Each structure stands twice: as structure tokens, then as C-alpha cells.
């Protein structure tokens, strides 16, 4: 890695856990992510990729000593850009990263325009849970009238639960309903997002009153 950095004048930060990688990406701006699948298992990798991908609009490359077709298939479904073997020469790896960086530089992400002229009454688009208000039209959440910053997937998960208030939803149902994936074989992404929602919305995330776990079945919102 250091040789790759010195040749291309790149600054590379290294970390050893999925949690620390997510924390670093949340705290700083990175141009790309190179993920070592030989040091972090596939299930954790998939959960982390699905957590990062909606917010990380940069190349994600996974490298592994000997990728299997199953690993590659699941990684691509989790929207990684490339799965590379570790025997790839450094100069080829550098050229590939440079090409991916160039490609992402060509992409401009623009928010969809909001047409206020035909806006429906806001209360038709709001769902209230105690002191939380979920506004599906404005894609916003408030708690005690104060805005709560959620990621895109956190908002989608909360909205999905709100649409099924009082119903017990399994992790597989949530994974399929929110992410649209039913073959990744990993439901840890659901647990991670529920934990984040509790941290942001519940008064006591260790003793939630609304985002409840139904042991052995899944989750429900009351």
C-alpha cells in the first residue's frame, strides 16, 4: 500500500475493522475505498457495503487472494465497483483506480426538482409517532420539532416501518422491502440501521419505546 501511495502521490489511511472504516469515511472525505476481503468476512463486508454505498459516491474496490464466483456475485449485488485478485500488479491496480476516479468525476449528482406549485397539504404526507414526525414528501424527520439527520436508507427503513405500524417484520422482509435484496444472505445491515435509528430517535437507545425488537421474529414500530 505504501508503495502504491508513494508512486501515485496518494495519501492512504489504513484501518483494521469495518466499524473504524465506517467512522473514518463519516469523518473525512475519501476519493476511493480499497477493501481487503481476506481480513474481514463476507457477511460483515456485505453489511458494511450496503451501509456505505448509498452515501459514498466514490469507487469501492474489493480485493481478495482468490475470489469465488459466489463472493463476486454477492459483492456486485452490494454495488461494489470491482473485485480484484491480490496478484494484480501494482501498476495495473493504480491504473484501474485512476480510471475509476476519472469515471466518478464525470458523474454529477443533482437533487430532483421540487414542484411547490402542485404540493398537496403536508399533513397528508406526515406520520406521527409520539414526538417524532416523519414527512414522506419532504423526506425529513423531526423529534420535538427539531430536525433529525438521517441517511437515505435510514429514512427509507423508518418510513417502511411506519407504513406497517404495529406489525412485526422479519429482517428478511425489511431487507427485501427497503433494500430490494433477497439473495445477499446477510441481515446484519438491518440490525445496524435499527441501532442507528434508535441512537438518533429514542430517548434511551438501550431501552427503546417505539422501535422494538420482537425476539426471534424481527422488529416493529409502535
TrEMBL record:
InterPro entries: CheY-like_superfamily (IPR011006), OmpR/PhoB-type_DNA-bd (IPR001867), Sig_transdc_resp-reg_C-effctor (IPR016032), Sig_transdc_resp-reg_receiver (IPR001789), WalR-like (IPR039420), WH-like_DNA-bd_sf (IPR036388). The keyword Transcription applies. Residues 124-222 form the OmpR/PhoB-type domain. Residues 124-222 bind DNA. Keywords: Activator, DNA-binding, Phosphoprotein, Transcription, Transcription regulation, Two-component regulatory system. One of its GO terms (molecular function) is phosphorelay response regulator activity. Pfam families: Trans_reg_C. SUPFAM superfamilies: C-terminal effector domain of the bipartite response regulators, CheY-like. One of its GO terms (biological process) is regulation of DNA-templated transcription. GO terms for cellular component: cytosol; protein-DNA complex. The modification 4-aspartylphosphate is found at residue 36. Residues 1-101 form the Response regulatory domain. This is Two-component system response regulator. It comes from Limosilactobacillus gastricus DSM 16045.
